[in-house]
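Figure 6 in text form: structure in, sequence out.
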């Protein structure tokens, strides 16, 4: 699922027009803003009374970072346009589950990037 979501974002012209940085876990040191950092929050294998099934439910957090609030918001809107309601291939469905705005810590006011975090619920086929 992680590779599919990253690939969807990287290949979308609106997202790639705003950033070339779409990474899982962390942003490489020295990478410029705007940037996207993805984190898997949860992944729960589906089961039935007969045992495991191939459908898995997950939650992915997409953090959109930028030097200005407007740039972070624009990037988050592009991400929402790509992922919310997406269904294709192994991804059975991706749905917006909530958003929040914040500002990161930094040594000076100018070094504090803005962040828009977006959570997505996912349903996907394993293997």
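Output sequence:
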């Amino acid at each position: 699922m992680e590779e599919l979501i990253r690939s969807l974002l990287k290949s979308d012209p609106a997202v790639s027009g705003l950033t070339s940085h779409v990474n899982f876990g962390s942003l490489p040191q020295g990478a410029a803003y705007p940037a996207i950092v993805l984190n898997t929050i949860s992944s729960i294998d589906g089961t039935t009374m007969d045992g495991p099934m191939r459908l898995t439910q997950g939650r992915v957090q997409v953090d959109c970072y930028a030097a200005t609030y407007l740039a972070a918001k624009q990037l988050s809107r592009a991400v929402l346009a790509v992922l919310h309601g997406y269904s294709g291939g192994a991804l059975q469905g991706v749905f917006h589950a909530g958003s929040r705005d914040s500002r990161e810590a930094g040594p000076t006011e100018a070094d504090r990037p803005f962040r828009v975090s977006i959570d997505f619920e996912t349903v996907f086929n394993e293997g």
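Caption detail: The chain has a mean pLDDT of 90.
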